[in-house]
Design goal:
The structure holds two protein chains of two kinds.
Chain A: H1 13-54, H2 72-91, H3 97-110, H4 115-130, H5 132-152, H6 156-177, H7 197-208, H8 219-240, H9 259-268, H10 274-289, H11 291-311, H12 314-334, H13 351-366, H14 398-401, H15 404-431, H16 438-445, E1 449-454, E2 459-461, E3 467-469, E4 477-483, H17 490-505, E5 512-518, H18 526-536, E6 544-547, H19 551-560, E7 565-566, E8 575-576, E9 579-583, E10 588-594, H20 606-620
Parallel strand pairs in A: 4-5, 5-6
Antiparallel strand pairs in A: 1-10, 2-3, 4-9, 7-8, 9-10
Helix pairs in contact in A: 1-5, 1-15, 1-16, 2-5, 2-7, 2-13, 3-4, 4-5, 5-6, 5-15, 6-7, 7-13, 8-11, 8-13, 9-10, 10-11, 11-12, 12-13, 16-20, 17-20
Chain B: H1 2-31, E1 52-56, E2 59-67, E3 75-83, E4 90-91, E5 103-107, E6 113-117, E7 126-131, E8 139-143, E9 154-156, E10 163-167, E11 173-177, E12 184-186, E13 203-211, E14 217-223, E15 230-235, E16 238-241, E17 254-263, E18 266-275, E19 278-286, E20 293-294, E21 298-300, E22 306-311, E23 317-321, E24 329-333, E25 340-343, E26 350-355, E27 361-367, E28 370-376, E29 384-390
Parallel strand pairs in B: 1-22
Antiparallel strand pairs in B: 1-2, 2-3, 3-4, 5-6, 6-7, 7-8, 9-10, 10-11, 11-12, 13-14, 14-15, 15-16, 17-18, 18-19, 19-20, 19-21, 22-23, 23-24, 24-25, 26-27, 27-28, 28-29
Classes of the chains: A alpha+beta, B mainly beta.
Chain lengths: 621, 398
Amino acid sequence: MPGMGRGLQSSNSTVASAFHTALFHQLLLILVVAAVLAIAFNVIRTVQYRRLTAAGTTTFPSRPHWDHAEPPARRILRVGFGVLWVVDGFLQLQSSMPLGLPTSVIQPTASSSPAWVQHIVTSGVNIWSLHPVQAAAASVWIQIGLGLWLLVAPRGLWSRFGGLASVGWGLVVWVFGEAFGGIFAPGLTWLFGAPGAVLIYCVAGVLVALPDRRWATPRTGRIILAASGVFFVAMAVLQAWPGRGYWQGRLSTANHVGTLAGMVAQMARTPQPSFLASWVSSFGRFDTAHGWAVNLLVVIFVGGIGVALCTGRRRVVLAAVIAAVVFCLADWVLVEDLGFLGGNGTDPNSMVPTALVLVAGYVAMVRLPVPLPVPINETAPGDAWSSAAPAAPERRRWWEWVTPGYLLRMFAALGAVVVVLVGTAPMTLAATNPNADPIISQALNGTPNIVDTPAPPFTLTNQRGAPVSLSGLRGHTIALTFLDPVCTSDCPLIAQEFRQADERLGSRSSKVDFIAIVANPIYRSISFTNAFDRQEGLDHMGNWLYLTGSLSQLRRVWNSYGVLVETAGAGAMIAHSDLAFVIDARGRERAEMEDNPGAGSQQSSSFSSLLLARISAVENQ
Amino acid sequence: MSGRCGRFRVVVTTVAVAGLITSAYVMGAALAPRVAEAATSVPPAVRAPLAAALTTASGSWAVVAMGQRGVPLNTFWQIFFRASGAASWTLVTPTGVADNGGLTLTAASDGSVTAGFEPSQLLHYSPLARSDDEGSSWTPALVPASLVAGPDAVAVAGRSGPALALTRHGTGQVLASSGSLLRWAPLSGSGSLTGAAAPGCEVEGLDAVAFGPSATPMVGTGCGRPGQVGVFARDGTGWRLIGPTLAGALAGSSTRVLRLNASGSTSTALVAAAAAGHSDLLGLWRPPAGAWSDSPPLSVGPAQRILATAVGLNGEQLVLLSKPGTNGELDMASGPGLGWTALASPPDGTVTLALLGDGNVDAFSVNGSRLRIFTVAPHQSTWALSQSMNVPIAYGSS
């Protein structure tokens, strides 16, 4: 019925099922590729063994390819953020992600940002909303793939590219998923995730992508810590800025709490273990009662940590890092509420990444890479701090220096890249398709009912005043629906779906007629069908017919097609069934489907995809 | 030595750049506009709402917003009719089209009435419904464009007479129909209203349409020229400015025509005159071929806005203004020079008022789908409940 506002719930079983199916198919693809890579790995090892045997050696090379171990700080970042990406990927597996992420996560995040931010975010939301299954599945594989990539490729170009790839995807998520981390929105606070968890992932990705030689001195660590210190001081200033609601636990107006207490209370209401909810609620109540003192402590603590990090003095910095990590963990639990519980949490928020970066910065300052033992009878394989793959000694062939471990990690990294591509490729294709997937319409209205019965005949009057009968349209496939010409909600949307289907048919549209029959017993004259056509831009569509007739004629057609048309009083719109039919060239009804466009406009063009599929199926039978 | 200096410079530069960026970010974030402060303090425009009533020889008509009035899509507008001499009002809202965009109602001299539907959601043209039998049945019609949201956006001269419609094209466009109310065309010369041909007014948008004596098309406009009231009449040569020029304290005011009607052979108007942040309302009356007479000005405070208007059988103007702490301020101008009479503040929930032929005033008090009608007699201060009813509103139906 028009205007009854049926919308898709994020837990819609049709979409969730399609999401799981897509993930399963992509997993199968990944397993096939993994199998191919495993075979290739064994083939190369076999070739290497035969070459070595022919050269008189019976063992694989065992000398390490770098004369220094991976810098400890880099390893912390690589492994830490690799694990975080994998965790984020698994969080994306939630069944509600395809439909829930835009409405429950992205749009609320962007809602308080300026219009230009919302405009940018909306463009991403639109892509996701048009292709929810592909987008959600892509996010899973891209993030798991990035995580695996970082975890399995410890050194060399493979590893550095992994860092850069995580920067690229991180920026996409930061802009479109986090609305720039909310940095352009009022009321932001570091305590609640500003400037966006994924931006910290990006920082870590940049650090992982640095050449090894950058980690050879404490300078990188000092820069990380000093920059963090400046950031902390700035966040303390922001936290102390008056008029932002952080100095008040309870506002002067009744029943309104301060900004931080409000955020905490909101988090405490999300589904989570009771003990955690209890902790968060307790902190929220404490902040409500002592808002000024809590904020003062936060400002002093965060500002003090920032100043200490900037000093560069080892002991002071160590104390600051320890304090910062403790503070981050406390904030992660009591304010951010772990970040991923309840709703559609997609990551553990910003505190764990922040702590990782601080620890890595400190380690980079105090623990430099150690030289690896080199066999006495072997020479070093080139530049100790080469940023590329290990340089082979001159006149040495690959089988003489590639170790099994190196080969395994290379193939593992290649596999991780494949996992990323399994997500990226279909998403890229989907992003270039402006038409929504039919799954949305099916989720809303159910799958089309496939039938094969004679279509009820009719003779009515078209928008030009000429009589039109169904029998006179033999030879053409017909897409038929029922529209109220003074409808304010559904009918214009359905008409646009028909128009889009016609455009997408291209040259095939000459064999297809798109027909609407008036579904209003009062406003049914040609004047209204023409006004509706002009409004919807259908008056230039050559194969569009908007048919009407006397009330008795219309009632007969409504009844024969099972269309309910009811007149309500008191200013309500005509209520009628949203039904569409596909009739083949022989005048037989081949498909019945609901064409309710739903409550939101995001479903736009989904029905046209479904209608096109049915038209094509009928034409090909 | 140089290497250490170079490293030191790199560290200092990096930290400085990070500091600058972060400081700028903090300043921007801290000084960002607050969500709660997003609303600006634009003074409410003095304009006539759709909540209106009119009285003809056959009876009174009222346009009443009902339902969830804070939710536009669930605010459904109703038309009530009370025949002269009858004791109660009857719900006569036309069916077949959603009216949650708003309704406007006009009466012709022969007693027929025409309702115009404001566009709503995805419907961008305006259906019409005409009744010749006091709302018992309605004949569908349409304007192929969006009617402006004003109580006098449509004027009909009679059952088969010409009609005018004021649409939202540009600053307003007047369409004319020969009587079918199905075929409309821009009224010849209407464009000149906003052009250089009206230097006496400096037209600032079209406000209302009406038919004057002998079915003369009339258009009410805003005038930027101080003291000039923008009422134009169309004769054989085109549009002619017939509105009066205000004198005295209002001589420097810009004006808008809030209502423009014909009561019998008398043309009536309700005009807002604004100057220096202050607004006044005044009623205007013009007998056939005569000069305009006006009422004294009624001061409208900066925080006040018009909630409802009504026109009486003899051209009386009734205005309900918001007034903090009360249910509103109700004033009536009975005729030229008679001044504004303050009536008793209407009952709680009053959204529309009707000035009946017998001089009584009915107040329509709405709470969701529940309607209560109160009546007050002239010179009395107590409203009496005269009728109540439930209107079956189909929430969420469009």
